[in-house]
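sorry to bug you again but im stuck and you know this stuff better than me. what follows is a protein written twice so to speak, once as letters and once as structure tokens for the fold. mainly i need to know what kind of three dimensional shape the backbone takes. anything you notice is useful, everything is just below:
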Amino acid sequence: MVHRKNEGSDVSELLDALARQGLKEAGCGIPEGVPEPRKASLVVFGGNAQPTSTVPRRDPSASDQVDALWHQEAEQWGIFDRNREFLLFATYPGTLARGWIRVKDSNSTRLPSRIAAATGYSDFIAVSLDGKSLCAVSYEEYEIWIVTHSFQDARPETVKPTPERKSSDTGENRP
């Protein structure tokens, strides 16, 4: 009989591995309005995914390039808050059931390489605490993709004003 660890121990191992890489779990919870990890995963790994930047996998400096490009995009897209906190969805057993992990980065360099060292996987998704911005790494067959996305575009519009109507008896415009 095969004994499988429970998902809680898998996530606990992940949190320990992330902490060794300077990413500590922030205990403030997941803010409301943040897209579900499955929705974010479709943006990054779905059939319509498009990279913002690419790096050839065979390039000897690929890891350094991915680190630099990812940080450039993450800063531009506002992934980190003023305390360097963000939401992380990393490839690791048990994370699908757990969902987002709110983490604080105590080391502001080489995040993609540090996540890969912690998880053993290079793919991950980072989302800003307000849920508006995504910056991810996806390893494809021949390239490494940096994917960015704004969830703000997908949010419902506010109430639209009612078009003006013309009153038939006065000829004036009314809301």
